[in-house]
Request: fold
Amino acid sequence: MPSPVRPAALVRPGALVLAAALVLTGCGAEVTSAGSGDGAAKAVGHYPVTIENCGEKKTYDAAPKRVVTNDVGITEIMFALGLEDRMAGYVMPDDKGDLDSVPWKDAYQKTKWLSKKTINKELVLDSRADLVFAGWNYGFNEAEGFTPAELERVGIGSYVLTESCRNGRDKARGVMPPLDALYVDLRNLGKLFDVEDRAEALIAAFQKQVAEAQAKAPKGADRPRVFLYDAGRDRPLTSGVYAGPHDIITKAGGDHVMKDLKDSWTTVGWETVVERDPEVIVINDYGDVSAEQKKEFLKSYPPLAGVSAIKHDRIVVLDYVELVESPRNPAAIASLAAQLRKLKG
Reply:
């Protein structure tokens, strides 16, 4: 989760169109399966492999066989690559939303839901995990003693979500543009699990989807100023330049008002929001506080009364899984671009 304490996340697909990903993850590309015929020979020849994750190079002699993932976006990165057979299970809050039209419905059904609570060392040990795929504040947390270093001490590997890589500014996160982070993770995992063709096909499909959305997005003077509201009343939690919403807003034709924040998910003061006068507010829909409750708070909070987005009731809702690093980011760009065109029309 973006913030240190993670409320429950929703996984409603809304109006997302993921036909390209469905085709790629449902058929066509084959995942090499170690231990069977030519696939086994290919896999043996592929290793060892070295990947760089958050600035650290790691070499693997074989593909992990029992991966535990934390949170929805991370889990769906594995599913998008067709790697559910390499998973021991996933950790995710109780409310995942309606999965009837989720592209990875079958993968969710086939993969064990290990816990609805916080991921921890005991859980991954009990699951006999050989790799944990999580991120800083998406599972990894020094305060809880759950870190890649601690897992290494008990013989369990880690892969850190690239969106969450720390950048040397205390515990600030983010080292590259958000969509690039998604593509880096797809390529790294493609190499690690010997499914590079599938990773490249997904990236190509996502890039095409983003390019098509950008072609139709507002441009120039028509680009509205956009603020991402995640949560918080005293101080709002929002997105800096390194969290998913930055690329989603920018490529959808918006001007992200917090683009100068060199962090991923972070807090700001309301006075900064008022000063930058967003014309559109995007609400991150998740947790115990509904999107409607967040909207009512924003509309009734006196300091925001003069903000353009509030005066003109220009508030858009996107789901959590669309905004954190996940295979749903490209479709979220298309969805937001369409909504921005409508609001400016």
